[in-house]
Amino acid sequence: MFVIVVGGGKVGYYLTKELIASGHEVALMEKDRRRAELIKDEIGSVVIAQDGCEGKYLHEAGANRAEIVAAVTGDDEDNLVICQMAKHHFDVPRTIARVNNPKNERLFRHLGVDEIISPTRMILGSIEQDIPVHELLHLAALGVGELEIIEAHLQPGSPAIGKIALDIPVPAGCSMFGVIRDGTPTPLNSDTVLAEGDKVIAIGRPDCEEDLRLQLIGEHEEA
Amino acid sequence: MKAVIVGCGRVGAGLADELDRAGWQVLILDLTPAAFDRLPSTFGGTALRGDGTDEDTLRRAGAEDADLFLALTEGDNRNVMAAQLGVEELGARKTVAKINDPVRAEAYAHLGIATLCRTNLMSAAVLGFTGQAVPEHPGIYPPQQPHEHPIDGAGTGTVPAVPAAGGPSTREV
Questions:
Q1: How many angstroms separate the CA atoms of B153 and B159, rounded?
Q2: Is B170 near chain A, with CB under 8 Å?
Q3: pTM for this structure?
Q4: Which end of chain B is less congested by CB atoms within 10 angstroms, N or C?
């Protein structure tokens, strides 16, 4: 497979090395000449010392025949432009962007970037699973991130306590499908009444989160 | 009428002043507070230090529902991103992004953003001054279609290919 990697920082460098090791054809674009030379000394002529945001140089790198363009520079705006140019100007079938500001994920997806990798979101997810927080936990992202599985731990003060689970108005595009009580998972029945300490598992689009939070966790304390 | 301007360089500051004097409600952002020295002391709008490519910052600054959203920083890609945030997330009615790379300027016009290209603007001015033929779009490329985002449609095949702009050619499928 022919992959163009744009951005020769740590991520781009190791990504390129791994791809070459697994037998893929790679072109790595890094606009900083000194950095490009350094990498070239190590991994050879696949390095192109040009700016991958410029259509001209993407073309020279072979974007016309690339199957994947991975934009992994440290700047979100550069990664967006690289993916959009690859997609719309060169018809690259699959574009991948690294995103630092998790808030940009939605915009990038909306603008046609195929896959979005957010190290910030990943680390955040990992931390949230380790410490008890009175918030929603993201358990997993499904597909290209359109859906996520969320856990809500019902604390004292939650408006959901004492209610029949299926009577709670959940936002469209979201569905509660189970509850973990005393470590035992059970599906929601028409007579399941939620209690303090329950962990409610739901699946939904990221934009349902705010409504779901209101129903299951309640208002923000600082608000 | 409300205008949001990202980037308080000479052009940004100049336009902020013009629009302010014409009675617009003007909000201008820049990362460097010193940039606001370019605004005249009579400027009656809001000048805020902040990153105009950050959605939270823009919302906190009240950049929603602008009649005009101008992305005029020194970075082409920052402008592209700010402008698309303006259109997609903040409901801006008219957006112009400054993009000095002519290839990118034309490509984004095809994606539905009006783009302003200093490179083309200046060469067209010189050509015109010396009596030679001036290109069709000497400065602003008008948007060629409503702002497109293919993922909302059925697939990625709905976006028309961008014609070559002197540099790279589009892929022949």
A1: 10
A2: yes
A3: 0.69
A4: C
Instruction: With CB atoms and an 8 Å threshold, state whether B104 touches A111.
Output: no
Name which of A78, A90, A103 is nearest B77 (Cβ-Cβ): A78
Q: How many helices (H) and strands (E) does chain A have?
A: 7, 11
* Of residues B77, B88, B168, nearest to A107 (C-beta): B88
Residue A190 in tokens: 């028409």
CA distance A80 to A71: 8
Q: Which of A81, A93, A112 sits opposite B77 (nearest CB)?
A: A81
Residue A14 class from Cβ within 10 Å (0-12 exposed, 13-18 middle, 19+ buried)? exposed
- CA of B168 to nearest chain A CA: how many angstroms apart? 5
Angle at A131 between CA A128 and CA A132, to 5 degrees: 100
pLDDT in tens, B127-166: 989 999 887 766 778 887 777 554 343 333 333 334 444 3
What is the complex's ipTM, to 2 decimals?
0.74
Would you say B86 and B113 are in contact if contact means Cβ atoms under 8 Å apart? no
Domains and CATH numbers, chain B: 2-152 (3.40.50.720)
Residues listed for chain B: 173
- Assess contact for A74 and A100: CB atoms under 8 A: yes
Binding-face residues of B in 38-97 toward A, CB within 8 A: 53-56, 75-78, 80-81, 84-85, 88-89
- Residue range A59-84: mean pLDDT, rounded: 96
Residue of B nearest to A83 (CA): B77
